[in-house]
Specification:
The complex is a heterodimer of chains A (213) and B (875). Chain A is of the alpha+beta class. Chain A folds into 2 domains: 2-41, no CATH class; 43-178, Beta-Lactamase. Chain A has 7 helices and 7 strands, in the order αββαβββαααββαα. In chain A, strand 4 and strand 5 (108-115) form a beta hairpin. Chain A is globular. The N and C termini of chain A lie far apart (62 Å). In chain B, a hairpin with a 3-residue loop joins strand 3 (641-649) and strand 4 (653-662). Classes of the chains: A alpha+beta (213), B alpha+beta (875). Chains A and B meet through helix 1, strand 2, helix 2, strand 3 and helix 3 of A and helix 3, helix 5, helix 7, helix 9 and helix 12 of B. Chain A: Oligomeric complex that consists of at least the alpha, beta, beta', gamma, delta, epsilon and zeta subunits.
Chain lengths: 213, 875
């Protein structure tokens, strides 16, 4: 990782006595500012994550086996990501060779990751879809507690937004429509009239005839 | 049931995470509820969510556990609850990689995917494709084709996306389903259009012509989906990059700059910038678009724009200057990444006068940005130092401030590299740079970096104005640091003592104290240096302070051989080839992501290869490979047979390695040899033919020659011919048709054995040339001196130096290969070793007059024949 002279390293020698030249090499940092033409592919999203306000994972999906192959590496990355992002609300950051766009609300942080060459605006559109879908599913009540209470639906939504790294749908209302929202989660008495109306609309759209038990 | 109740209760207690503190085994036990009839959808959905949550948290399921859970889950197909069914699909996808016999659900999923429920169908297709293997593919192919052209966009998208995933199972899926994808491309739904385009590209990407057709057709229609438009831009750019269908595609990408979606506009601008078609006219429009984005309220858009501009500033700083005003507004951006990129861009494009102001601005927040971006800043400063050498004081101060801040090893190393680079490029900055580095090692937690800087101090410190001031810093390390740093500090001290005689007595005192160190390596070194330095009168010992950079594996091999011999002669270190010095990468490489691996020298890797050939053992066993020449081509590159030669010089032998390639599909060559006519004095020792040379498979044949006793005769021209037995064969299979082949031969170009093939340059920075030169006279080297007028092709001193070094194969000492511009006289100092370990020193005084270079060449070598050979071959 640190070339003081190749032979010195190979022999496990720690100091640079036999080196006559100090090399200026290896800036192998993860961000590559060197742009390149993007390979045409649909595999755009490297990962999506929802973290709580302690940086713990609520839900996370990684689509590229090459980056973060194990959950240990994933969680280390998430921790790092959270530390870098939870204070500054800056929307975009480059970390570990990934472009990460993020958005937070109350006690939740939403992230979408793509390669460092990826079009940032595409990632942003996916993030917006993720956030808006969750927001619609939770009736604008985007909080950790609410996410956990409707975790099944949120999982389905994530699955509908991105399939194995390919953006499946980036339109929040269409995603919500596809995840078959359960309507009877909130007691009727606690709902506003408007909510009930929208719910009825949804349930009308979401449930197919013959599906009711 | 109880567990479920408890969960409920915890939830009511409020606050906490209902999924917290779950036990994997408990949850999996709860999965038994799935077997109850009738299925309770609500309860089962909750348990299934818990399982999915656990998996998502990184909990590992064993194969048995996963399989049990999977089979329990299949029972849930009985329920008609939509959410539950969809969760089952998710579960299938998650468990498919761990559980066994997952194909059991194929029929259920096939039923769902062909059923009436659109909400099931799309998800069922995606679940089904995750459990599909090559064998099952045929069974579902018909359904998939139907699904691709289904009128429900969700189903169509799911099928298209799944077919892309399936390419990993069966490579030609996309191609087989391309017709359906073509139909889906006309869909009204934007996502279906996008996915269909992806599948079509996958199907045709190996056929450039087909891609060109697809792209040029689509560029005429306008795609509704912005994603598809981005994809199309990338496809067009790929073709443009490969020089296909130039004008029309370029116009299309340019027209995308006026697309209504920002995403597409940015993609087009980014693509145009990266296409590398320089020219201010081409870049004007993308730059004006990016300029507009710089003022956007969206951070992501500003980031994207400024990042692209930053990149472009490296290659086209002038073009980016148009955006300077907008970039100025971004240097206080609340997103520090944007601010950093803006400032570094300005540093690249701006004038010298703005440097101070920008550095001040960036200093205010440099502590807030991530290490990655700090490195970007460091790189920008490095470029700046090259551009404005006069600003080195400001930049150096800034770098040293950054060195003092917190930061990881890579970041600190990047700074140290930059300081070193600045020092090398600018002698004025040397003193300041060394002072900063000294200060840095006072408080440096990275051992490797401290060692490196100490080494640099040892190299550079003695030649500075006041060497004694560095001694204190170095000796402090001996007192305070870990063993490896102490050892490096001892070495650095010895360098000072060797190069600065006035310091010798004091350093000896320090070194004698180091002999009491607790670490044996430190003690050994101190004792070693003390012993050498105390015999200060003998100039031949001084090079031992700075031993040449030898290749360790070769040294090991040579020592082994020496131990096996009778050991009556002293070990000759000059036999050992030097280690390969990694050249400083050029500016462009610094910015790329190339990782430089420590590697074997060319000689070592060749030696490894040669020593595996038993017939060559007589040569390779006794003696290390002295030098391998560059590859020389003995044929034109597009002839029937390609032959390249590498000359391996040993002390008394020459091995010629011929790499042959047969480019004829209808011929199989056997018993391939390169025959040579040994020139006068050379003796042919043996040859190793290549038994078989099939089409496009490289083969190697060797010739072993013994060098003539008379060194003068060793520079020679060797005529070569390729001989072989050719057999005609079937181009498709490579199986020969005829029983009997026919002998044939093929003339190759003549092979030159030159002086450089037998000479190894070994000088570098470590050699104190004048001392060695004087010592050579003292040791009775013979000297030859001659004056030459160099040919008409050499009209500058640089060219003379370059051609002389190339021709002689010697290495330049004391950086004398750098000719200061504008001078008319230069002295080139060269050092090296002739095969057999004969040292060679040469001094060439060059004078330039009327585009004619005159050279006085003095050569010193213990062997008069070698000196003679050098002067005679120059003439």
């Amino acid at each position: 990782m640190f070339p003081i002279g190749d032979t010195a390293i190979r022999k496990g020698r720690k100091e640079g006595r036999p080196v006559t030249r100090v090399h200026v090499t290896l800036i192998n940092f993860d961000i590559n500012m060197d742009g390149q033409l993007l390979e045409p592919t649909l595999y755009t999203v490297k990962g999506m994550a929802i973290l709580d306000n302690d940086g713990n994972r609520i839900l996370a999906k990684y689509y590229d086996k090459k980056i973060f192959p194990t959950s240990k590496e994933q969680k280390a990355f998430e921790k790092n990501l959270f530390n870098k992002t939870h204070r500054a609300n800056a929307e975009i950051i480059m970390l570990d060779g990934l472009t990460c766009v993020y958005r937070s609300n109350v006690d939740l942080f939403f992230y979408v990751m793509g390669s460092s060459h990826e079009n940032e605006l595409i990632l942003m559109s996916v993030l917006n879809c993720l956030y808006d879908s969750v927001s619609q599913i939770l009736r604008k009540n985007v909080e950790k507690r609410a996410v956990l209470d409707s975790l099944d639906i949120v999982m389905l939504a994530v699955d509908e937004i991105c399939d194995g790294g390919i953006i499946l749908d980036a339109d929040a209302s269409s995603v919500v429509q596809r995840v078959a929202l359960r309507t009877d989660d909130i007691p009727l008495g606690e709902q506003t009239v408007a909510q009930t109306c929208t719910q009825l609309q949804w349930s009308h759209r979401a449930r197919m005839p013959g599906d009711l038990p | 049931m109880n567990a479920f109740k408890r969960d409920k209760k915890e939830e009511e207690d409020g606050g906490g995470n209902p999924f917290q503190n779950m036990e994997k085994t408990t949850v999996l036990q709860e999965a038994r509820t799935f077997n109850d009839t009738p299925v309770n959808p609500r309860k089962c959905a909750h348990i299934l969510t818990k399982i999915l949550y656990l998996i998502n948290q990184g909990e590992q399921l064993g194969t048995t556990e996963a399989t049990e859970a999977f089979f329990a889950m299949t029972k849930l197909f009985q329920s008609r609850d939509v959410v539950l069914r969809r969760l089952v699909y998710l579960g299938i996808k998650e468990l498919s990689s761990v559980a066994e016999d997952v194909i059991i659900v194929t029929s259920s999923l096939t039923k769902d995917m062909t059923g009436k429920e659109d909400l099931y169908r799309a998800a069922a297709i995606r679940a089904l494709c995750t459990i599909t293997d090559g064998g099952m593919l045929a069974a579902i192919e018909r359904y998939m084709k139907q699904a691709i052209v289904d009128k429900s966009p969700a189903v169509s998208s799911a099928a298209l996306v799944s077919s892309l995933h399936l390419t990993s199972v069966s490579g030609d899926v996309a191609r087989r389903w391309a017709n359906e994808a073509q139909e889906a491309l006309n869909s009204d739904n934007v996502m279906v259009q996008y996915h269909a385009l992806g599948v079509l590209y996958q199907a045709r990407k190996s056929d450039k012509h087909a891609v060109t057709k697809l792209v040029s057709k689509l560029t005429r229609t306008s795609l509704k989906s912005p994603y598809a438009a981005c994809m199309l831009i990338r496809m067009a750019c790929k073709l443009l990059d490969e020089d296909e269908g130039a004008g029309e595609l370029y116009e299309f990408v340019e027209s995308c700059l006026r697309h209504k979606s920002e995403m597409v506009v940015y993609e087009a601008a980014h693509a145009l910038v990266n296409l590398g078609r320089s020219g201010s006219r081409e870049l004007a429009s993308p730059i004006s678009v990016l300029q507009l984005f710089c003022g956007s309220p969206k951070p992501a858009l500003r980031f994207a724009a400024v990042r692209t501009l930053n990149k472009m500033a490296m290659s086209h700083p002038a073009a980016v200057t148009a955006c300077n005003l907008d970039l100025e507004n971004l240097i206080t951006d609340s997103n520090r990444s944007i601010a950093t990129l803006a400032i570094t861009t300005l540093l690249k494009t701006g004038a010298e006068s703005s440097v101070d102001r920008l550095m001040k601005q960036i200093a205010t927040f440099v502590s807030e940005i991530s290490d990655e971006f700090k490195v970007v800043v460091v790189q920008a400063i490095r470029a700046l130092c090259q551009k404005f050498p006069r600003k080195h004081a400001v930049l150096m101060n800034f770098l040293s401030a950054m060195l003092r801040d917190e930061g990881g090893l890579e970041y600190k190393a990047a700074i140290a590299d930059t300081i070193i680079a600045v020092m090398e490029g600018n002698t004025e900055a040397k003193e300041a740079g060394l002072a900063h580095l000294c200060e840095f090692i006072e408080d440096c937690e990275h051992t490797s970096l401290a060692v490196r800087i100490l080494h640099l101090l040892g190299q550079e410190g003695p030649t500075s104005k006041q060497p004694s001031r560095y001694i204190r810093f170095i000796y402090n390390r001996v007192i305070l640091e870990s063993a490896s740093v102490r050892a490096a500090a001892v070495t650095a001290l010895a360098h000072f003592a060797a190069s600065c005689p006035p310091l010798l007595p004091n350093v000896l005192v320090l070194l004698s104290r180091c002999q009491l160190d607790s670490d044996d390596e430190v003690r050994d070194r101190a004792a070693y240096y003390c012993a050498i330095l105390q015999q200060q009168n003998d100039p031949t010992l001084l090079p031992l302070i700075q031993p040449p950079l030898l290749s360790i594996p070769s040294l090991e091999g040579a020592l082994r051989n020496y131990i096996r011999s009778s050991m009556d002669q002293p070990f000759d270190i000059s036999q050992v080839p030097p280690a390969q010095t990694v050249e400083e990468p050029t500016q462009t490489e610094i910015l790329s992501n190339i990782k430089q691996q420590p590697r074997l020298t060319r000689e070592e890797s060749f030696m490894e290869k040669l020593s595996q050939i038993p017939q060559l053992a007589t040569v390779t066993r006794d003696c290390p490979l002295f030098k391998s020449s560059a590859v020389c081509e003995l044929t034109e590159s597009e002839t029937e047979y390609n032959v390249k030669c590498v000359k391996h010089s040993f002390a008394n032998h020459l091995i010629l390695q011929f790499d042959c390639l047969n480019t004829l599909t209808d011929q199989l060559l056997e018993d391939v040899r390169v025959t040579v006519e040994p020139p006068e004095g050379y003796t042919l020792i043996g040859e190793i033919p290549c038994p078989r040379l099939a089409y496009n498979e490289p083969g190697t044949t060797y010739i072993v020659l013994e060098y003539p006793k008379d060194i003068q005769a060793s520079v020679a021209t060797i005529p070569t011919t390729l001989r072989f037995t050719a057999r005609d064969c079937d181009p498709a299979t490579g199986i020969p048709d005829a029983e009997q082949g026919y002998d044939d031969e093929y003339m190759l170009e003549d092979l030159e054995v030159t002086l450089a093939d037998q000479m190894r340059g070994s000088a570098g920075r470590g050699l104190d040339f004048s001392a060695a030169w004087d010592a050579a006279a003292a040791r009775g080297f013979s000297e030859l001196e001659e004056t030459f007028a160099l040919g008409a092709s050499v009209t500058t001193l640089e060219a003379a130096v370059r051609s002389l070094i190339g021709f002689l194969g010697l290495g330049a000492a004391e950086l004398s290969d750098r000719v200061p511009s504008g001078t008319v006289g230069h002295t080139l100092l060269l050092g090296g070793v002739f095969r057999g370990g004969k040292q060679v020193l040469a001094r060439a005084r060059l004078a330039l007059a009327d585009e004619q270079v005159t050279m006085q060449l003095s050569v010193r070598s213990p062997d008069p024949d070698v000196a003679e050979l050098i002067t005679s071959s120059v003439g």
